[in-house]
Amino acid sequence: RIQMTPTIMTDYVSPSCIRITGYRQEDFYNDPNLGLEMIHPEDREFFQKHVTSDNKKSQKPITVRLVRKDGQVIWIEQTHTIISNEQGEPVAMHLIARDITERKHAEEQLKHAMVNLEQSSAQLAATNKELETFSYSVSHDLRSPLRSIDGFSQALLEDYTESLDDTGKDYLNRLRTASQKMGELIDGLLKLSRLTRSEMHQEEVNLSMLVKEITSRLHENEPRRQVEFVIRKGLVTQGDPELLRALFENLLGNAWKFTSKSEKTRIE
């Protein structure tokens, strides 16, 4: 508390003020200007304008730096209230300050984190763009030669079958199988890249109905296979429908594929 009449002087210093500033009560009593001198030189003009405002009411808190007695610079949040007499003349000023150094440091760390996040987001966007370009390259540049390999291998088997022995036919069949497998892998990579770039949408998904649709298509593609799917009824969850569909298409597709040599198959 600062007394303003008849002369400016400090008439009360709280224990918290002593703890925050590192000065003794006597230091404030002996030096009326100490409160201003403690303020960081770069913040002093702003602080002085604030406390000498014509507004007689309590001011909004301000944030300034303060230099402690030991030289340490800390951040404080300060408010002041003018006390007036019956004639409306200011006679005293209450100054209340609290140490917000830790909060300011946390704000700075958050600010740096946000900057890093923005940079990471920009890098991620650039990476996704490169991935998209690569996907198109894979789609057009790699699949074309694979189709040629598969097509010419099939032509050899059909047009020159009498000139080929069993070993030659086996080699060509293996070549066709490998090229078709590579085509499936490329299709899977393209599908995965599209899924990872898309935005996730959470909603209720009926897993029982989803799995039933997938297994029905598998049966339609190979109706001769004797495969029994055991699907529990009423399974519902929250998730992205497209991602869940891709998940179960891969799981069930692999189960279907790797049991192809079995006469009867049961998949749960």
Automatic annotation (TrEMBL):
Q: Which Pfam families is this protein grouped with?
A: HisKA, PAS_3
**Coiled-coil regions listed in the entry:** 103-130
Q: Which UniProt keywords apply?
A: Coiled coil, Kinase, Membrane, Transferase
Question: PAS domain spans which residues?
Answer: 12-58
Question: EC no.?
Answer: 2.7.13.3
Extract the GO molecular function terms from the UniProt entry: phosphorelay response regulator activity; phosphorelay sensor kinase activity; protein kinase activator activity
Name a biological process GO annotation: osmosensory signaling via phosphorelay pathway
Q: What EC class is this?
A: transferase
Could you tell me which residue ranges the Histidine kinase domain spans? 137-268
Q: Which reaction does it catalyse?
A: ATP + protein L-histidine = ADP + protein N-phospho-L-histidine
Which InterPro entries does the protein's record reference?
BphY/WalK/GraS-like (IPR050351), HATPase_C_sf (IPR036890), His_kinase_dom (IPR005467), HisK_dim/P_dom (IPR003661), HisK_dim/P_sf (IPR036097), PAC (IPR001610), PAS (IPR000014), PAS-assoc_C (IPR000700)
Q: Name one GO cellular component term.
A: membrane
The PAC domain extends over 60-112
Q: Please state what the protein is called.
A: histidine kinase
Tell me the organism.
Answer: marine sediment metagenome
